[in-house]
Amino acid sequence: MSNNVSFTLRYAARTDVGLRRQRNEDSVYAGPRLLAVADGMGGHSHGEVASATVIAALSSLDGEPPGADPLGTLEVAITEAGHRLKDMAGSDPKLTGMGTTLTAMLWDGMRFALAHIGDSRAYMLRDGSLYQITRDHTLVQSLVDDGQMTAEQAAAHPRRSLLMRALGGSGSVEPDLSMREARAGDRYLVCSDGLSGVVGPQALHETLTGFDDLGAAADRLIQLARDGGGPDNITCVVAEVPAST
Questions:
Q1: Coil vs helix vs strand at 43
Q2: Structural contact between residues 109 and 4, judged by C-beta atoms closer than 8 angstroms
């Protein structure tokens, strides 16, 4: 399919502090070309600084078409954001140790660049089936990959949120990068682990298929995470490629 196919990506974004946190350290961006979720860490609002800084750095990508190399454009922006975090930590010792996950989609017609670092996730709903299209950069996921732990054990592991990779003050930036082709009728979910760590794949699938209105679907996902105890900040973007007319 031509990358010049014109359509208007439909989307809805929601974020919620949850039930156990004092502040929301997640940041989110949703626009016609860019969808992104960042889950900050570092305590004392430093995670909030990290996630907001990265989302702000990427937001400029939403303005202009990404050009011939959407993936390279996204990678450069993420690298620059990582350097910005390093500079901030270098000039303010209190910010040492801050970091953030990032999962971002940069759209170019019927394809998108996908960048991912940390344990925020992207899912794709296609032809009635839900697929996780990112791989968590966590210790437990590496143990699953090595056959030392089942996915079910990983989901219940007390250290399941321990990250192996994140954007932070160290300046090293190693996101997973891929180009993907979209299809008319696809739905996508980008979310922080405050959602995916509480609400299982079956409930995600039921919600993404059960609502025509994307805002209602996003509201339902937030509520499901709160009903599950809301142990963390909860952020999601639900997006849809309009069906062919």
A1: coil
A2: yes
pLDDT at 5: 60
Question: 168 and 102 in contact (C-beta within 8 Å)?
Answer: no
Per-residue model confidence (pLDDT) at position 97: 87
- Return the structure tokens found at 56: 């702000």
Region 107-127: mean pLDDT is 96
In angstroms, how far is CA 32 from the centroid of its own chain?
16
Taking residue 100's Cβ as centre, other Cβ atoms within 10 Å add up to 32
Query: Phi-psi bin for 185: left (phi > 0), alpha (psi -120 to 50), beta?
Result: left
Place of tokens 């660049």: 113
Alpha carbons 20 and 103: distance in angstroms, whole number = 24
Strand-strand pairing, 187-191 and 234-240? antiparallel
pLDDT band, very low/low/confident/very high, at 4 (cuts 50, 70, 90): low
